[in-house]
Amino acid sequence: MIRAYKFLMRPTVRQQGALTEMLRDHCSLYNGALQERRDAYRHASKTTIRYGQQSAQLKDIRAFDPERQGRWSFSSQQATLRRLDKAFAAFFRRVKAGEKPGYPRFRSGSRFDTVEFPKDGDGCRWDATPRDPATRVRLQGVGHVKVCQHRPVVGKVKTIGVRREGRRWYVVLTVEQGTLEPLPATGAVVGIDMGIAHFLADSGGDFVPNPRHGAKIAAKLEAAQRSLSRCKRGSRRRRKAVESVARLHRKARRQRLDHAHKTALDLVREHDFIAHEDLKIRNMSRAPAPKPDPDRPGSFLPNGGAAKTGLNRSIADAGWGVFLTILHAKAESAGREVIAVDPRNTSRRCPACGHTAKENRPTQEKFHCVSCGHNAHADTVGALNVLRAGLVRREAAPA
């Protein structure tokens, strides 16, 4: 099993400068490799350059520019070239699938924030047993950087990454772990229904409130963005305003992650089996298509775009995708079972008689079966139907 650990680093002033230079030089390598691919395709009869060809040039690049490229780890530079190769692979995949292509773009120094080391001990070293109390990570060209290790690392470290977030620096470890001991069985099963009014409702009738972290900072974020719009580009004041906006976004993201981790952990500890809706979040948050006015060419009819924008913002603020990813990861490490089921009609089907109709849900919260008269909260009904569908899928799955 592969697991990731993220720790805050405490670099000195000199080390901060070296880390910044490392990101700058890897960004330059990334952009140069992208430019080479573009030029080869446009001016050399649509020639395609692969990762292997660009990786073979690294030795000459390092010898030509020892001050900026030769001082860093060869493996980390290969990882940067492999990162570009993955971007092109994703581009061609989207083209074949008929999706929006998204051609790989050049990166500015402020938007290139990660350097990866593919192997512990090759240009980097995680010092798990240091002589002094502080944990350190050794990076080629930077030195031994102090790390705030807030929990033990269990398993063998495979890869190491350095990430910049604002003014903070983090080290990300990818660890290979053996078979983990599962949590004791509880015999409990649960179905969950994701929502906006409540973050989730379970089949037992309980609700987890939606914290709405993004909505809570909306006023501060609006003021910070308004201040940013008045700043002159390239000025020191604008850089400070950009950092203020980014700081608010980071705070909301950390709060959202914290809430998702705690909610998922509670579900995993208390239940052996968890069923949830197989939500297509990208489709749910898609902007509505415009409606041309047949009577007035060039004009459009109202399509509810403003209301859909607010709903999309609420969906993004809830963070359903992040929560479900964390839930699956925690369930796997704890030996729990998680199944996604088809969400269609889960809030319209009566759990008492099975009657399915749009009229069964007259309001957002109320469920009233027009066939048998069963009354309940609509989200609780949805969670019950999700649980039943999940149990049916589990029983039908081959052993």
Can you characterise this structure?
The protein has helices spanning 13-43, 51-56, 58-64, 74-97, 213-216, 218-229, 236-270, 281-284, 305-318, 320-334, 378-396; strands spanning 2-10, 114-117, 124-127, 135-139, 143-148, 156-165, 168-176, 189-194, 198-202, 207-209, 273-277, 291-292, 300-301, 337-341, 366-368, 375-377. With 399 residues, the protein is of the alpha+beta class. The protein has 2 domains: 2-176, no CATH class; 189-396, no CATH class. It has a 7-stranded antiparallel β-sheet with strand order 2-6-7-1-5-4-3. A 5-stranded mixed β-sheet has the order 10-9-8-11-14. β15 and β16 (375-377) form a beta hairpin. α1 packs across α4 and α6 runs antiparallel to α7. The longest helix has 35 residues, at 236-270. The model has no long low-confidence stretch (mean pLDDT 92).
Question: What is the topological layout?
Answer:
Layout (H helix, E strand, L loop, with lengths): L1 E9 L2 H31 L7 H6 L1 H7 L9 H24 L16 E4 L6 E4 L7 E5 L3 E6 L7 E10 L2 E9 L12 E6 L3 E5 L4 E3 L3 H4 L1 H12 L6 H35 L2 E5 L3 H4 L6 E2 L7 E2 L3 H14 L1 H15 L2 E5 L24 E3 L6 E3 H19 L3
Parallel strand pairs: 8-11, 11-14
Antiparallel strand pairs: 1-5, 1-7, 2-6, 3-4, 4-5, 6-7, 8-9, 9-10, 12-13, 15-16
In short:
The chain is of the alpha+beta class and 399 residues long. It has helices at residues 13-43, 51-56, 58-64, 74-97, 213-216, 218-229, 236-270, 281-284, 305-318, 320-334, 378-396, and strands at residues 2-10, 114-117, 124-127, 135-139, 143-148, 156-165, 168-176, 189-194, 198-202, 207-209, 273-277, 291-292, 300-301, 337-341, 366-368, 375-377. It has 2 domains: 2-176, no CATH class; 189-396, no CATH class.
